[in-house]
Design brief:
Number of strands: 9
Structural class: mainly beta
Order of helices and strands: EEEEEEEEE
Shape: globular
Number of helices: 0
Strand content: 35-45%
Helix content: under 10%
Strand order of the largest sheet: 8-7-6-3-9
Length: 113
Amino acid sequence: MTATAIPSGQLALKGPAEKLDAAHWPVRGDLAHIRLAGRCFVPHYAVPMERRVAAGGADLLADGKEGADVREVLGGGTLFNVLDITGGWAWGQVGEDGFVGYLPVALLEERRG
């Protein structure tokens, strides 16, 4: 399990916002990975929940709906860091620095241990 460091001290945004690549940065208009606190201004930050893709694998989608563009085909056992679950879809990031996208929650295994 990887430890997620929660930033300490006072957080402040300084200067213009960075232009982030949505396919690789875990940030949306309402939520971002906790490691982006101080770099991105959103209403909420989340500590990821580590999950693994089920044995059959899964398509990582650009949007949480059937028929959305596929960003990457993930093999069974791939680490997926879940940041949000809504309507049967999990939004998060592959590993620590992979693609960001959506998977059906049913295709993720519960964390063991």
